[in-house]
Specification:
By secondary structure, the protein is of the alpha+beta class. It is built from three helices and seven strands.
């Protein structure tokens, strides 16, 4: 079972997180490395470790000064570990952390083909599908007030 850690930008694991995000999310789309790091400085970073190997990551980015709303972003799991519960463990850790911070709502711009994964945690699709970085996406959100 993988271990989930919360790290910051000064942690040596941050560089491994960046590389995983580049490999899984950006390079397959032809987006330059480090092309989606504009929120890293204000995000909470969660990583999944299998021993000393970083195998997954996800960010939670505050959307307002009161920390009432946040956005789940940059979810990536190493292809060798996909379908093995790593993403689930990352989401569970992120949701637990969000509740501890009294965040009221989390939203996601999800790739349409994986929206059902997020729905299994209680996220709900709203609005119309849209295109982002050349891929169909859906907006999802979850209220943490009643969860």
């Amino acid at each position: 079972m993988s271990e989930i850690l919360r790290i910051n930008l000064s942690d040596p694991l941050y560089q491994k997180e960046r590389e995983l995000r580049n490999n899984i999310l950006l390079r397959p789309l032809g987006i330059p490395d480090f092309g989606w790091e504009m929120y890293d400085h204000k995000a909470w970073h969660f990583v999944a470790m299998e021993g000393a190997v970083l195998i997954g990551c996800v960010l939670l980015v505050p959307l307002d000064a009161k920390l009432a709303r946040a956005q789940l972003m940059q979810m990536a799991v190493d292809t060798n570990y996909q379908g093995k519960g790593v993403g689930k463990a990352l989401i569970q850790a992120l949701l637990s952390f969000a509740r501890s911070k009294k965040i009221k709502e989390i939203e996601i711009h999800s790739r349409a083909k994986v929206s059902t994964f997020y729905e299994s945690f209680g996220f709900h699709i709203y609005g119309e599908e849209f295109e982002e970085v050349g891929i169909r996406h859906q907006l999802l959100k979850m209220s943490l007030l009643s969860n």
